[in-house]
């Protein structure tokens, strides 16, 4: 335990020192490093697969479920995907040093803002080893140092990827300690990482709700977090029904296990009879289990009865809860009560109701006539994302490079003093 | 204790409910409330002075020091200043609902951001009762509800101001519970306020370092904080000496007890002999105690020897530490080691050194050829400030209306789904 503490403190100290160099690194050095890491990953693909094989074998021996083993496995395609992701990050504009809003003040000084890195970012994630490359790339491009703590079941894979990252940093003349992957499965390492206020500026946990809740509770460092996604689509009585059915189908069935999938469908009572039978046929044909309120079940008898618990639930599975609501106010009230401030969408052709929904729904992404599945860094044009924040402080929604930065004020004077 | 807990929970619940109404309030209603509060304060000036008199008498009886009694006292001028401050906030642009960066994506959706209130803001402050009006005004204009917890020595004054705020909110048709001033001196109220995660979105502590450290440590809610201001001026060897002397004089002597006053002066060795004797004469004439390193003391024998402790110290008093440094790197290294990431200024005519200082000094305000005293919401054109943040997450530097808001993503579609 004391060893782990010392180990983490030493990682923290090195990360802090590296962060100062990374903050000054120019765009070319950062991009060179990203491309060099991508190359190293491709050239090491045999090693990566061998090391990953150890993790996969151990996971199977330990009886890890098939889905988790699948997430853990590095195939050739995952490996080339990591390299491709890093090359895409190299192509993004460098956010650091960006100066904005420079304005002259009556005193004669000119005041504005300069974008700067946050410093040291601690990222805690679960089984997917490709997160190691993604997170390293985003932190590097945004001028931050990072400490990555992957799942213990992926230790060999993550260390093999870490070696590629170090090689790339070195090749570009950047400090190898700018990206450090914690090399211990001791859980005490996490406890230390989230309380090293002197060395870590922000924690980004990626994983299940339990992991994130525990980290948020115990961290002494600000956490950019995404708790859960209970996303809604509200089909208004002024909806274009064809759009409504297309969007509600896509929001639920495009992918089930993702945070931006719809979990509850709200339908205006005036159009429920027009919408639900046709839409629910699609769901039932795709094997989606439906749980509805009384009004919905009258229209679609195959539905089970939804419980209070259902409205709160992020299924991450082919299950959908459905409720008929009287009007826009009832829809917003439902989202306010049961939602998770992640992503909610209204389908309507009515201007005033669309504007009200946009303004009044307090979620990180609010949409009109679009599938909730669009709530994603790539879809939004951020280039990549480190996660989706359901917090309100600092970053909200998909967090890309800019979410890993801060802005300081800069003042340009010519000898001005306060009078 | 249990009573205080219930009392605070009930305040929290009401604040949360009010925050939803405030988020929808239009600009006109918010401005009307601000003007009505200003009127109520002016009309109640006799009552305010009477109530304040109770606090002042108690403070004197309790042996509070003269400076604290001074800060506590509401004179006619302080009262008209509060009203004027509220009118100025009414004139500021409404940040809420601002839509920015709307861009079409290849999928056909249009994505951008909408500025929204944070929700419920808890503000904990010490003796100055005028903070009650300022903080209420800023929270109101930014569409937030707030819970204000002033110093126990100002309880009568704060409650009298709170009555004016409620009257103004009521006159404008806004919920009176949008601004609640905690009406108990029980310290348990603070402990409750900073841990009511369900009802409070952010805590802003204003006061001494001890208060802020305690709150940061115990809060379970994000804190926008300003720990201390160890601000530096670095006089480079390419400085215009006249500007350097004017700025270094102003930064230290314009006001002593403020966070943006210079506490340590760094002078390049090549110009120390040209700068220090003349500048130190000004300081000594104004009664500033000087504490220097050996090199400075050789030039100005009246200086005491500075200790390691001095470089870390925010004097908030007519005391200045002075150090001669070899070059820009040494100046930046000193600031990095001893500074508080608040405000630092370089005096130089050299372009490259100015740019390096701006980029490399990691403080909330970094200046060239200007007095550190400009680090202030009014001077920066924010209109007013709730405080100065030395954090990196969310808001950095002077925090005005925008620092009390967040941005959500909005997506405008026309039936788009993800493929």
UniProtKB/TrEMBL annotation, chains A, B:
It catalyses: L-glutamate 5-semialdehyde + phosphate + NADP(+) = L-glutamyl 5-phosphate + NADPH + H(+). Pathway: Amino-acid biosynthesis; L-proline biosynthesis; L-glutamate 5-semialdehyde from L-glutamate: step 2/2. One of its GO terms (molecular function) is glutamate-5-semialdehyde dehydrogenase activity. Its EC number is 1.2.1.41. InterPro entries: Ald_DH/histidinol_DH, Ald_DH_C, Ald_DH_N, Aldehyde_DH_dom, G-glutamylP_reductase_CS, Glu-5-SA_DH, GPR_dom. Keywords: Amino-acid biosynthesis, NADP, Oxidoreductase, Proline biosynthesis. Pfam families: Aldedh. Gene3D superfamilies: Aldehyde Dehydrogenase, Chain A, domain 1 (3.40.605.10), Aldehyde Dehydrogenase, Chain A, domain 2 (3.40.309.10). Residues 14-280, 311-375 form the Aldehyde dehydrogenase domain. It is an enzyme of class 1 (oxidoreductase). GO terms for biological process: L-proline biosynthetic process. This is glutamate-5-semialdehyde dehydrogenase.
